[in-house]
Design brief:
two-stranded antiparallel ribbon, 15 helices, 2 domains, 380 residues, Rossmann fold, globular
């Protein structure tokens, strides 16, 4: 039986582990699970973002697969949907204890940590690092990153990378999660360790709840959605639900640019391959940009039909975009794509997309756009 989470907070269980732009709430996922799913279903989210679909699948005992191009999304989704053994939980607690303060005068063992690591630590060199991070913060981040790198257990390492990623904006000079501008914050020594300890401690509280024992399994792929889909078996999935990138609206990679630098990733391939990315599309004329988006989505939708079972449902949540001053009605775009696929449109629900001001792209904030929930049926 699919549980009902409509009265729960959107951050329950692991849903609050990491901020992520434009993510949909677990209540939305749960609503469609109750409409279209059974507990033995296998779920697919081809643009899984921070893993909301995967977590809801895990909590309802359903196996799931998520795909995302963004390596930060991959880390978050795995951390949130993984199962952790009692031994792994104990190892995480031990890791935290090693950087806990030993006394009120020992600020997170800072002096000891620095002395032990001063000849081993190399602070990564990336563009404008000193603009975005104080020197003391950079040094602490480098020490902490090295300690996590040395962990052998992949589940533990990934969870701690997720916590490391979460604190990056807080300890940086970036104004906030939704404003990509720098301001002076005067972070004191120890800010990295204290923030990290608080974050992991909160994770452990969540993972010690009974919900952690639910048996659904999630698998996450990091890569181009179309390329990953081509490698998956046909007629495998019982239900697909996703929110694909909105055309020319969100800088998905930009929200996590500094995180990528610190975790050793290059943001440029993500920027270049992101479907609908405004850095690529905003310089193009309307028809060219629209055509590029349609071509990419057509390939993906056709592959989704192939890997999904006949007569299965696919729910897509997608918002309108603006290209060259013209609003693109994405419900019409998806309808056009479906004319050349095995999918038929069962239902479209549209609402005004007023909550768009969280984007870094301020020029899109007040545009008259809508968000569409489109239910498709695989009629192959």
């Amino acid at each position: 039986m699919i549980t009902d989470n409509q009265n729960k907070k959107s951050t329950y269980y692991t849903h609050g582990f990491h901020p992520y732009p434009a993510k949909f709430t677990p209540q939305i996922i749960n609503r469609f699970f109750n409409l279209y799913c059974k507990q033995d279903f296998i779920i697919l989210d081809p643009f899984c973002g921070s893993g909301t679909t995967l977590v809801e699948s895990v909590l309802n005992g359903m196996d799931s697969v998520g795909i995302d191009l963004n390596p930060i999304a991959y880390i978050i989704s795995r951390a949130k949907s993984n199962h952790y053994t009692t031994e792994e939980i104990q190892s995480i607690k031990k890791f935290i204890s090693e950087i806990q303060p030993q006394s009120n005068n020992d600020l997170f063992s800072q002096n000891n940590i620095i002395l032990k690591n001063e000849n081993k630590i190399s602070i990564p060199d990336f563009p404008n690092r000193n603009h975005w991070f104080q020197e003391n913060v950079s040094y602490e981040l480098a020490i902490l990153k090295k300690k996590i790198d040395d962990i052998e257990n992949k589940n533990i390492k990934n969870l701690l990378y997720c916590a490391f990623s979460k604190i990056i904006v807080k300890v940086s000079n970036q104004d906030s999660e939704v404003r990509y501008s720098a301001k002076k914050k005067n972070h004191s020594d120890g800010i990295v360790f204290s923030s990290f300890i608080d974050t992991v401690s909160n994770y452990l509280q969540v993972l010690n709840t009974k919900e952690h024992l639910i048996i659904g399994k999630a698998e996450v792929y990091n890569g181009d959605t179309y390329e990953v889909l081509k490698k998956l078996s046909e007629n495998h999935f019982d239900f697909v639900i996703t929110s694909p990138p909105y055309i020319n609206t969100f800088d998905y990679y930009l929200y996590h640019k500094q995180r990528m630098f610190w975790l050793g990733y290059d943001h440029r391939p993500v920027r270049q391959k992101e479907i609908g990315n405004h850095h690529r599309i905003d310089t193009k004329k309307f028809e060219v940009a629209k055509s590029e988006y349609i071509d990419s989505m057509t390939q993906i939708i056709n592959e989704l039909s192939r890997v999904s079972k006949p007569n299965s449902y696919f729910v897509m949540i997608i918002g309108d975009g603006i290209v060259d001053g013209t609003t693109i009605d994405m419900s019409q775009v998806i309808a056009e794509i479906c004319e050349y696929s095995n999918y038929s449109i069962e239902k479209i629900e549209s609402v005004n997309l007023s909550d768009i001001t969280r984007s870094f792209n301020k020029k899109f904030s007040n545009a008259p756009k809508k968000e569409h929930t489109i239910t498709l049926k695989n009629c192959k």
